[in-house]
Amino acid sequence: MRSTRPLALTAAAVALAAVPLAAAAPAGAGQSRPPYAIDSSGPAADAVFPEGVATDSAYFYVGSTTDGTVYRGELGGTTATRFLAGGQDGRTSAIGMKVADGYLFVAGGATGRFFVYDVDSGELVGSYAVPATGAPTFLNDVAVAPDGTVYVTDSQRPVLYAVSPDYATDGVETLPAGYEYAGTELVYQAGFNVNGIVASPDGRYLLLAQSNTGTLFRVDRATGDITAVDLGGAKVSGDGLVLRGRTLYAVERAPLDPPQTGPDNVDGRIVEIRLSGDWTSGTVLGYTRDDSFDDPTTAAIARGRLLVVNSQFGERSAGVAPSTPFTVSSIPLP
């Protein structure tokens, strides 16, 4: 069942017919289709626990948090198969990912590593590591500005990294800092802090989601000013963020601000937000859930649809065997 819940009106639930993965056919933007399956391989074949997803015009990419394998699948197909082997190039965990201008960018979570690949050949172009200060790190999500600058969030260190458009490295180089949050409204606390990130189409702003406080922040790229986005009191515990025009889709695995009690007050939903022109404020328009969701973490837009990663992190935390294959949901844009 896929449901969309506006703030003042609940839409009727729509039942989805079960369709075997092998029989799936390409679906239009407004049609239902079964999730993509991850045809996993290697030592972590039964423990992929995916987190990030990225798309280009033909493929989607999804990574394993357990061993760093990156899987690739055709958008018109049914499955994703191994594209980059886990452990290759020192990539032992794959978290946030993005595809832009022929490159695949991969954040390495607690490893503090960041990788740039040629998306056609799979060849490593650039390899980076956070400064070796001994402080915990978690490189979480990636955004690419129109000028090609790549931004990488760190959920443990109060810094936003920035890689210039010349991505090539000679060995492993230090991941350079772009903005630091000290002295701004964005104050790090216990837990996972800045997570999802998107860049505005005109390149003026970045939008960050601080997951543990349910707050969005706007970064002015020219001045470095960082300000909280006024959501009228709503909290949005954004993991992944997806932007379409001025509409922001925030993936919440564990909402801090449920819209109501009852059956919809559960983990895993998409929050639709309408941003103001200058990104200083926004309005929560509604919430979308789908029966195929299983601890959704992030999403990407492809061919008018929203691809949502099902991490099954809840199963991992509880020590329960996950359902296999791991999947990526494909739903119409809310």
Features:
single chain, 334 residues, mainly beta, Thrombin, subunit H, 8-stranded mixed β-sheet, 5-stranded antiparallel β-sheet, 1 helix
Give structural notes.
The strands form five sheets. An eight-stranded mixed beta sheet has the order 3-4-5-6-2-26-25-24, with no helix packed on it. Strands 1-23-22-21-20 form a five-stranded antiparallel beta sheet, with no helix packed on it. The chain has one helix at residues 313-318; strands at residues 2-6, 36-38, 50-55, 59-64, 70-74, 79-84, 97-100, 103-107, 113-118, 124-129, 139-144, 150-154, 159-163, 172-174, 177-180, 194-199, 205-210, 215-220, 226-228, 241-244, 247-252, 269-275, 282-290, 296-302, 305-310, 327-332. Residues 5-26 and 261-265 have low confidence and may be disordered. The longest helix has 6 residues, at 313-318. It is built from one helix and 26 strands. The protein has a domain at 181-289: Thrombin, subunit H (Beta Barrel).
Summarize the structure.
With 334 residues, the protein is an all-beta fold.
- What topology, given as strand order, has the largest sheet? 3-4-5-6-2-26-25-24
**Oligomer classification:** single chain
Q: Which band does the percent of strand residues land in?
A: 35-45%
CATH architecture of the domain at 181-289: Beta Barrel
Distance between the termini: 14 Å
Helix segment tally: 1
Residue-averaged pLDDT, rounded?
90
User: Poorly predicted ranges (pLDDT <50, ≥5 residues)?
Assistant: 5-26, 261-265
Order of helices and strands: EEEEEEEEEEEEEEEEEEEEEEEEEHE
Radius of gyration: 19 Å
- Quickly give the structural class: mainly beta
CATH class category name of the domain at 181-289? Mainly Beta
Instruction: From the 3D structure, determine the CATH topology of the domain at 181-289.
Output: Thrombin, subunit H
